[in-house]
Amino acid sequence: MKKTILFLTLLVSTAFAQQPTPDARFAGLDTLFARVLNEWKCAGFAVAVVEKDKIIYAKGFGYADIDTKRPVTEHTQFAAGSCTKPFTCAALGLLRAENKIDFNHSVREYLPQLSFYNEEMNKNITVRDLMCHRTGLPRHDQAWALFSTHSVDTLLKRVQYLEPNYGLREKWQYNNFMFAAQGKMVENLSGQSYRAFVRERIFQPLGMKDVTFSVDSMTLYNDRSLCYTVSEDDKIVPLDYFNLDVMSAVGGINTSVSEMAKWVMLWANNGIYKGKRLLPADYVREAISSQMIVRDAAPSASNPSLHFENYGLGWFLSSYRGHYRVEHGGNISGFSTNTCF
To answer: What are 266-314's pLDDT values in tens digits?
Structure first.
């Protein structure tokens, strides 16, 4: 049986659950998630499970708003964080199918305004290197998180000052700036804003209607989760939403498990949704194939089923109990998410 699991979780506590599923295969699952809710100190979370082209389980647990006791549902909108990254790479995959980009060509061919720390990097870094985190640059997250800007162009001008700590393709290192650069490439090549392109070419064909890209838009959505954390004295305290408007291509999507399940169905069915091909087959295959080793991985006492841990194009790849697992997580202040198939 082919299954896909999508988690969208809010890391705080309480305990409310919707009506149990009638599917006998999920007997005990509601009880398990209620326990997770309590033990992980979550305010609330939602889970969706996909089998082939159907959602076979979708539920919310806990509260989206603790004060009003408004429950999480399968339609509650959460900040998806870096679960956005596979969308960004897929946008470039769609543009490649139109012969507008070659992943093995220099980044500066498509984004001439982007400069790196030295000329060797300017000359040799390819689009593919950005897509699989192998530029030699560490995260440098403070360079964008602590110095906010409303301009992607301004943000990307900072890249020239970011020093690498490894050579090109020597070591996998997660870097959010490189996905902001990919979003800008989408705009340069398509003539549309990143948000407009993803909405038109991915969200709309999938029927993903309840999706927003900004804090302002999310706050207008009635069934949305508020943002919480757990304090040092073990109390749930509210947080402000973290504004990622300038980092839309990095982690800007806000949506629900019922909507993200459609995205999972697309990938689980080789780029086809409801009988229509939405992603090129060659791109789907390439995106979930290893492009860079993330770290040495071998079976151990704590994880006997792990045989590899690599990165594709916007996707983490690993083994799980004899299965080939494709996934990406996301973490923004107050939210933690995961998409997996």
So the answer is: 999 999 999 999 999 999 999 999 999 999 888 888 889 899 999 999 9
DSSP annotation of 245 reads G
301, part of any domain: no
Q: Can you tell me the distance from the alpha carbon of 62 to that of 10, in angstroms, rounded to the nearest whole number?
A: 9
Q: How far apart are CA 87 and CA 335, in angstroms?
A: 19
CA–CA gap between residue 260 and residue 8 (Å, rounded):
9
Co-location of 31 and 171 in the same domain: no
The answer to the question of residue 203 being in a domain is no
Q: Please indicate, yes or no, whether residues 254 and 328 belong to a single structural domain of this protein.
A: yes
Identify the domain containing residue 162 by its residue range.
101-194
Whether 22 and 123 map to the same domain: the answer is: no
Count: domains in the chain:
2
- Pairing of β 272-273 and β 276-277: antiparallel
DSSP secondary structure, 71-87, as one string: EP-TT-BEE-GGGGHHH
Q: What is the pLDDT of residues 75-97, one digit of tens each?
A: 999 999 999 999 999 999 999 99
Do 212 and 81 fall into the same domain? yes
- Do 78 and 55 reside in the same domain of the chain? yes
Q: Around Cβ 71, how many Cβ atoms within 10 Å? A: 18
Spatial CB neighbours of 184, under 8 Å, sequence gap ≥ 6: 111, 114, 152, 153, 156, 194, 249
Q: Could you give the CA distance from residue 44 to residue 22 in angstroms, rounded to a whole number?
A: 22
| CATH number of the domain bearing residue 121 | 1.20.58
Q: Can you tell me the distance from the alpha carbon of 271 to that of 64, in angstroms, rounded to the nearest whole number?
A: 32
Helices (H), strands (E): how many in the chain?
A: 14, 15
pTM beyond 0.90: the answer is yes
DSSP for residue 212 = B
Q: Which two tokens stand for residue 24?
A: 């006998």
The dihedral built from the CA positions of residue 254, 257, 261 and 267, taken in this order, carries a sign that is positive
Largest pairwise CA distance in the chain: 61
User: What are the beta bridge partners of residue 162?
Assistant: none
Interatomic CA distance for residues 33 and 60, integer angstroms: 10
